[in-house]
Amino acid sequence: MFGLEKPAGQQKPGGSGGLPKMASVGDFNVLSSSIPATKVELSVSCRNLLDRDTFSKSDPICVLYTQAIGNKEWREFGRTEVIDNTLNPDFVRKFIMDYFFEERENLRFDFYDVDSKSPNLSKHDFLGQMFCTLGEIVGSQGSRLEKPIVGIPGKKCGIVIVTAEELGCCRDSVLMQFCANKLDKKDFFGKSDPFLVFHRSNEDGSFTICHKTEVVKNTLNPVWQAFKISVRALCNGDYDRTIKVEVYDWDRDGSHDFIGEFTTSYRELSRGQSQFNVYEVINPKKKGKKKKYVNSGTVTLLSFLIETEVSFLDYIKGGTQINFTVAIDFTASNGNPSQPTSLHYMNPYQLNAYGMALRAVGEIIQDYDSDKMFPALGFGARLPPDGRVSHEFALNGNPQNPYCHGIDGVMEAYYRSLKSVQLYGPTNFAPVINHVARYAASVKDGSQYFVLLIITDGVISDMAQTKESIVNASKLPMSIIIVGVGPAEFDAMEELDGDVVRISSRGRFAERDIVQFVPFRDYIDRSGNHVLSMARLAKDVLAEIPEQFLSYMRVRGIKPSPAPPPYTPPIHVLQTQI
């Protein structure tokens, strides 16, 4: 196989040496299999929702849940924005989902009337729900599913319309800015409070809302802030598809007054600021009634800038290496490894929870690490020969070179350690996080990214130091995955995850969310189908890595290196003797 040496001096966590780093072009083929066949964008609208507010209409939000395979647990997938004062919302925020023809993806759409700023849904009024599958939406005529909202006995809760659109693979975004002149005055006491609503046309001629500008108060000549939108959202990558823009006068009660509309296309807009991009705002009703009607004002495009969004795979193809380090909890709370009740029990017939989690995550992530050499560390044990407690020891017993070859090598070193060290304590995470951080700090050019997998039974002893380590590490090219095994309460881990509240230490907040936590018990398949349950575990813990990776690259302004040209073997010219 054709190989390329990594430049000297780029090391992975562990010892001072290590084997030469080999990256082969052949390794990149594995990526194509993990990319979903299709991504679909779901747009949600409702009609005739229940009115739960006394003095105004409901302020609805839609929350989408997906159902885990196997344990049937519903997990929140995402939320739309809240739309004030309406029973007929057309939500702007879309849900983008992977669509696999061969998988049944159960979906649940819950609707709430939002009464406060609290993210806790129990604090808001439930308006009903709708159950369906992703295949049901995609398979409906025009990929448009209309179903009644249910869930409140004896009440008609309205209907929900979900439309699925397959996303083109266009990855450009545009930054646009608009202004308007001499818009119609709609307010009795003041001028209008205008805002724009953008819609893209669908294959069947209907329109889907894709962007709303902010409201500019009390003016007939507004200048709106520049906004960024993906070309996919604006026109699904079809440059000639109609884009309809409506102009409204904002009203506090939600009954916004229609000023007028115009149509354009991505191709027209891409001409930038010119006479072609000054649009007459037309109100069809006024035009029909008044002979002398000219327009209801004009809207002008001030700027149009195309930006190409880069993906995780662009960096991988450009040669960025993902360095994977494992840290395993060897504290006494795991139980004596010789006893079947222990989380570290070495069952000759089946992997224990540590082994299953390690293999599930490692086997996927190793595809992105060309030399397959992984530093494997342990913490919380007494080491031979003198019984000193270590929170950062090499599983293979070689502190100068803790690399193990492949996931099998890591498993072997893990089992060997169990036989030689004494489980002890306390459970300190900071040393292993700092260990990886030292290496990540030495390679900040985007050529390497570090992922630390910590597997633990979860009762953490050095919370303050761990938070400090995570806040420091959030500036570095690294992510941390924590898998909690066993029956413990994992409240502290949820805090480290930072999905709800960004983690902070001594008044400093993490620059990025870099921790992803999952409890292993959520993935135990009672039927014994470990392959399926471990696939789900890996999918969930690795799901956030590409976005965490991209957030680091974006903040640092690091662009992907160009992909190497495909390797073609040299042609040997045969010398023929005369």
TrEMBL record:
Domain VWFA positions: 323-524
Gene Ontology biological-process annotations: cellular response to calcium ion
InterPro entries, per the entry: C2_dom, C2_domain_sf, C2B_Copine, Copine, Copine_C, VWF_A, vWFA_dom_sf
Keyword Metal-binding attributed: yes
Alphabetically ordered keywords of this record: Calcium, Metal-binding, Phosphoprotein, Repeat
Gene Ontology molecular-function annotations: calcium-dependent phospholipid binding; metal ion binding
Cellular component aspect of the GO annotation: plasma membrane
Purpose of the protein: Probable calcium-dependent phospholipid-binding protein that may play a role in calcium-mediated intracellular processes.
Protein name: Copine-8
Organism: Edolisoma coerulescens
